[in-house]
Amino acid sequence: MLSQKTIDIIKSTVPVLEVHGTTITTVFYENLFEAHPELLNVFNHANQKKGRQQNALANTVLAAAKYIDQLETILPAVKQIAQKHRSLAVKPEHYPIVGEFLLGAIKEVLKDAATEEIIHAWGEAYGVIAGVFISIEKEMYDQASNQDGGWSDFKPFTVVEKVQESDVITSFYLKPANGDAVPSFLPGQYVTIRMEIQGERYLFNRQYSLSASPGKDYFRISVKKEKPGISPDGRVSNYLHEVIQVGDMIDVTAPAGDFTINMEKQTPLVFLSGGVGITPFMSMVHAVADQKPERDVQFIHASENGALQPFRSELTELSRKLTNYQLSFVYKNPSEEDKNLPNFEKQGYMDAELLSSHVKPEADYYVCGPVPFMKAIITCLKELGIDPEKIHYEFFGPAIAL
């Protein structure tokens, strides 16, 4: 337990963290990787280059400072981060290293303002927070390894099939290389894949949603090919699309993540996706079709056009299983052929006018896609009177503030 004095000191640093938090975490990562370059085998390089990891850590540190005397308040966020950590094989021995460099970054950025008393208080607080993460992650590791077909860290999988879903999205079907069974998972969860790319010094880790329902003898991930040279994400996605072939092996972690649906509920479901944000919903909607086909499901997907629309026939065929199912496509720049598709609903954007015709106050809404898309859709839903507790969303990568 932290003393009241330590709690008061930590809370007194909140205004400073609000101003300098991202600077501190940027310095932290620079110093950490310079001293421990081997940790570049664990972290997502693209999130580092885009600054998302730095912002996410700054937000976490700030939240910890604000709620240091009631950490249970931020427990949902802690569990979400812990899921990511478990999927990346972050271990207890990493925490002392992180603590050392985080305190060092606070001193480096704040200089004389980071008094010995403040550094000591943050050292104590970090120890408590790290202990919470380590405890939660141990439970997650145990759960991942003790389930049927489960394992703890990374495991080799073989690519058994490669299917082009649209002009930019390809699905990879993966089976354990040793012939083991595939564990079950919750619809909407993701796996981390780890790859060695020729000519690169460090391993690459990427997290991809599982896009097929549980209960299969394979995992399926569906990957958007990013434009090379424009997005730092492109290194791995282009390698997967252009180099990885059937028969190749990829290291995979057990499924993780808390962006899932409650299969016990009967409330209507509304899936709102943009671009590759459709992938976790494929697992969800298939699971509903398999287990609760009578459940009310509305699925609205936004794409640039029909050529970039993934899973069109797969989604359409679900009408054979789902008895109360409405599927709609929204295309920004549809072709004349696109406009004649049975499920084409609107040219332009998914907006309040469109959503208002699909609103069901009792429904659970699931949103996933590019950040601007998510901001717009979540804002629209709230303006239409949807209870925020019924709006569920997930970021691909570190969480940021909407």
How many DSSP helices? Answer: 13
- How many domains in all? 3
Basic shape: globular
The CATH superfamily of the largest domain is known as Globins
Helix-strand pattern, N to C? HHHHHHHEEEEEHEEHEHEHEHEHE
CATH architecture of the largest domain: Orthogonal Bundle
Summing up helix and strand content along with how strands pair, one would put the structural category as alpha/beta
Main sheet specs: 6 strands, antiparallel
Distance between the termini: 33 Å
Biggest sheet strand order reads: 4-3-6-1-2-5
User: What Rg, in angstroms, do the CA atoms define?
Assistant: 22 Å
- Unreliable spans: none
| Mean pLDDT rating | 91
Strand content range: 15-25%
- CATH topology name of the largest domain, in short, is Globin-like
In brief, what are we looking at here?
This protein has 402 residues and is α/β, with parallel strands linked by helices. It has helices at residues 4-12, 14-35, 45-49, 52-66, 75-87, 94-110, 116-146, 234-242, 279-291, 312-317, 336-339, 352-356, 371-383; strands spanning 154-164, 169-176, 190-195, 204-209, 219-224, 249-253, 269-274, 297-303, 325-331, 344-347, 364-368, 391-393.
For this entry, give a set of tags:
about 400 residues; 6-stranded antiparallel beta sheet; about 20% strand; globular; 3 domains; alpha/beta; 13 helices; Elongation Factor Tu (Ef-tu), domain 3; Globin-like; 6-stranded parallel beta sheet; Rossmann fold
